Amino acid sequence: MNKTIYILSSFFAGLLITDPLFAQQSDAPSSLQDSINLVDLNPSSISVTGKLYALPKVSVMESGNVGASSVLMLRGVNSINLSTSPLVYVDGIPLRYTASRPTFLSTYEPDRLGFLNPYDVTDISVNASGLLIPKVGGRGANGVLDIKTERGEFGGTKVDFSANYGLNNVDYNVPRFDAQSMKSYLWARFSEEGMPAQQLDQHPIFSATDPVYNNNTDWLDLIRQRGVFQDYHLKLKGGDGDANYMFAVGYTNKDGTVKNTDFERIGIRFNLDYNLSPSIKIFNNLSYTNTSGHYKDFGSDYAVHPLYVASAKSPFMATHFINPNGEQSRIMAGVDTLGFSNPLALVNNLENKNQFNRIDGVMGVNWALAESWSLSSDLSVSYFNLSEKQYRPALGIVNDLYRIRQNSQRSSSEFYLNWNGRLAKSGKISESTNYEGALQASVETYEEKAIYGRKINAGTDDFETLEQGIVDSASNTEFRSNLMTLMAQGAITWNDRVDIDGFINVQGSSNFGSNARWNLYPGARATVYVWGEKPQNILNLLLGYDRTGNHEVRGFYHYNQYYPVNYFGFGAVYLGNVANPDLRPEITDTYEIKATARPFGNRLQFNLGYYYKRTHDLITHKAVVKELGIDGLFENAGTVENKGLELGLSAQLISSKDFNWNMSASVSTLKNKVLSLPNGDVEQSIGMQTGIAKEGYALGSFYGYKVLGVFQSEADVNLNKSDGTPYRAGDYQIEDLNGDGRISTLDRQVLGAPLPEFFGHVSTNFSYKKWGLIALINFSQGADIYNSFKQQMHLMRDYANQDPAVLTRWASESEPGSGLSRAATNDPSGNGVASSLWVEDGSYVKLKNLTLHYEITSGKSQHFFKRIRIYFSADNLFTWTNYTGFDPEVNSLNSPMLRNIDFGAPPLGKTYKLGFRASF
């Protein structure tokens, strides 16, 4: 190809991968990277988020629900209706971490970074504000993760191959009755509800000879499995004086610890850097990834929650039909007489399949012009398609309202195209003063589409397609947005003692009406080298301010919106939103101060910083009269703040020929509070749990009733239910906040906050000759967890297997129990509502990763390989916590209002992995 054509096509096509003006600035200091090398840290996580545990400022909550998205947080949460997850850049391509639409499952969110193989990642920068990546502008309010993949290097072709095999074990030891204890419990339940003794004696459940009800089935053991992890990765890289290249191909497979849950990934990546001349450099990135998986619903829909149903189903039931002769058939047993599904049907027959294809491409040029001028430009393209399928048979699964069986399918896609050009100049104002300046412009277009269909009640369970059944629902949605960014940057360095830099970002988004489309996002900071000149300074002080925004709305809230509805079997629409042409992005102002000390050079670094984030113009609903029949007018009304300290320490304790010892630690504190909500409190619910935004409290606090005890006798009952009828002895006594003698929604209160007071990590890296040891500890303090799974195991509203603690329930005035309410079918007194009983302290300290490795290097006579590293790694070895659930690392939703609700998803478990990496 003609060089001139190639240069011009790259220039007029591109997006800038790195900002040269601030390329030296990173929130992950080199000393930290040296302490625990992210390339060497290889947790069993299939996602690159597994590496984030070793970085400061970012809070990570991962679960054993294979393929599920981790919950990420940088400096708190600051929105009610928009995403609060950080924006992610992968080699300069922006990625929305939170999906725009829910999946078929109640809480499952697929990992948006699952396409990226951790072995391709060479660097992750945690940018908690817009100072380090000013181009984010109106989408940087939640911080940015800047991920770089490996590139080629000068020298002959080098081949790296890695192979890993691991096993994951989880102890699903849910406290529950065995077969005989379950019968005793049901006998007592039926007796308490008034069933005569003669009828109890004749009930088939209590028969000593009926083969249907005399089994000893461990349902949890039948649905669990040992999770297997395997990963193979081949990388070729090299280069000469003009071109450096990196080619990688990888395969990953991970089985969950519940049967028929898995994740599989196949990926290819090619990066090329080419020097056309000493002043012109071209770069290209191209990658393709296919991921697929099978998932189960471990969320709020307990009717099809495999772990809950396996815990709640009576162990005296059989897995398959039993004929009158007591012989077990090959036909799986259906829904039992107590109304519970067959857990084997949930894991073997109910299917949830996802397949994800993603293509990313970048082409660009960096051109060093005369007299310290430089020109950069490139074009990035990203496309992915997600195919989702769900098949729900009738056999063995409780009917869902009018749906006996169903098939659902959805195909969705996202397309992203971005061009960016940058002109920069550097020079000297005087002998002691240097300057840098740049102008940058970018244009982005984004489009997402989705086609969805569902058919129900096909004639038999034999049809797993949309070809059979009754059309229940269908939709075809499309969303498109455009973004333009104009930016000016400048920096001045005086006498290697003071750095002052700033930027102005002017950004226009089509997500808003013409009255509020353009917004200004400025930022500035000053760094004073108090003791010593850079880069060997001993102490420096940084002051910074920046403004970012959150404009990731999806609903065209500045338009009138009509929503589809089923009206007595006919399709219809209704007006759901009145247009607000003045709606604008949520705005976040961040102020920070940071001191960095290096008293012994690069051997020791200590960071201490304070940040204050204030977000205003929250997008909330303005209440309207119900007669209008709409949800409310969207408008900017509300303010929330996040503030805290950030401490970091990295040290090179020992450095010698044979022995090296590095260590790092970080602690981030967080204080989140809603300052104002002119439109009143905002509530969002899932299942029986509610999160609230309320002035004076943390955003997303748990909201429900405070239980004071149990009414021991009818004489003690002094409260009425919301319908005016009195409670009964054995019901929970709820705090009557307004003192009207009646418990209603007005008596709900804040029960706890899901955000931690502080969190962080400690890591260490030893090496002695050819041996090495890496250890990583993570901790979190002060975050509350709503233990919904435990609540289900104590409800006693149906005939589910329960925690043996229910034996100490209130049974009568002479048997008052020890704190649990009476058992009552269908829970007429609402004892199972969200309450303080199930809010627990989720603080923990966890030995996240421990890796022992041994390295073999080639000798003078050995040229077949250069280096081989063999390692044994263990994840989640020990967890110190008072939390009574599976794991205090609760991963439910990325929603800011519904965090830390434990529905009983599979925990991470202990993973043991053996691997090796060879360089040739």
From TrEMBL:
Leader sequence range is 1-23
Instruction: Please give, as recorded in its UniProt entry, the membrane topology of this protein.
Output: Multi-pass membrane protein
Domain named TonB-dependent receptor plug: residues = 52-144
Q: Which UniProt keywords apply?
A: Cell outer membrane, Membrane, Signal, Transmembrane, Transmembrane beta strand, Transport
Task: Tell me where it resides.
Answer: Cell outer membrane
- Give the Gene3D superfamilies listed for this entry: TonB-dependent receptor, beta-barrel domain, TonB-dependent receptor, plug domain
Which Pfam families does the UniProt entry name for this protein?
Answer: OMP_b-brl_3, Plug
Record-annotated Outer membrane protein beta-barrel domain positions:
578-674
Q: Which family does it belong to?
A: Belongs to the TonB-dependent receptor family.
Q: In its UniProt entry, what is this protein called?
A: SusC/RagA family TonB-linked outer membrane protein
